[in-house]
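Sample entry was shown:
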Amino acid sequence: MDRIQIEEAIERIGELPTLPSVLGKILNTAADPDASALDLGEHITTDQSLSATLLKLVNSAFYGFHRQITSVTQAIVILGFLEVRNLALTATAFRTLDTGATDYDRVQLWRHSLASAMAADAIKKKLGEPIEGAFEAGLLHDIGKVVLDMLYPEIFVQAARQAHAESRTIADVLKERVGIDHAEVGGLLAEHWELPPAVVAAIRYHLRPEEAPEASKLIYVAAAANALTYPAGLGESSNGTPLEVPESAREALGLNGATETAVIEKLLESKENIDEFLGALAR
């Protein structure tokens, strides 16, 4: 395989679509304690496609409401700012990168990504700490795989095949063969998308949190959430072996067997709903 020059990767990633400006307004409004449901709803409804997608998601079996939610404002009142913000981020990321024909199973990647976001949120709640960016980091931690599949499809497919043949992680194969792995590529895209620096760092270092220049609990949460999806059957297919929760993450977060089992059980209970959610997202 040819080695990927980081300068070239940065240039090519810079040509990829950016996140719509409306998402920034949604995220900022959701974080504003003085904002109302009407304020948030106004931003969302400026994007008709996003509004329609949100209503499809809210009315999917994932939430199981017994009555139809007919407006974005109603959805915000029922679900809350944070949940609607997370829905907007998920739908926008999915739409932004769901382009082009590919042999890579991106639906399976999005299953894993959504499960990781749910696991990150569950870990945060178990810790009882306000760790900002947990859902975002969980959702987007593997976004570099989509980028590699879009920009370097032959390299990505060959690396995945080698990872399976040798029962290794695709990150190790990529690092060895082309000099850059999907976590680094994901960090580059996150910078291109102007995501918060803490989220960028979590994406970039989720595989090797001990290598981060500045360790943060968000990085450890992303690392643990990623690994805990595998025993729940929601891992990611490009890896030739399941991931383990890094010991550094266990120590930093104070995770124990009971906490990890509780997160895994929550994911197992959510598998069918995750598929319903993705089905609504893809329609």
The chain is about 65% helix and 0% strand.
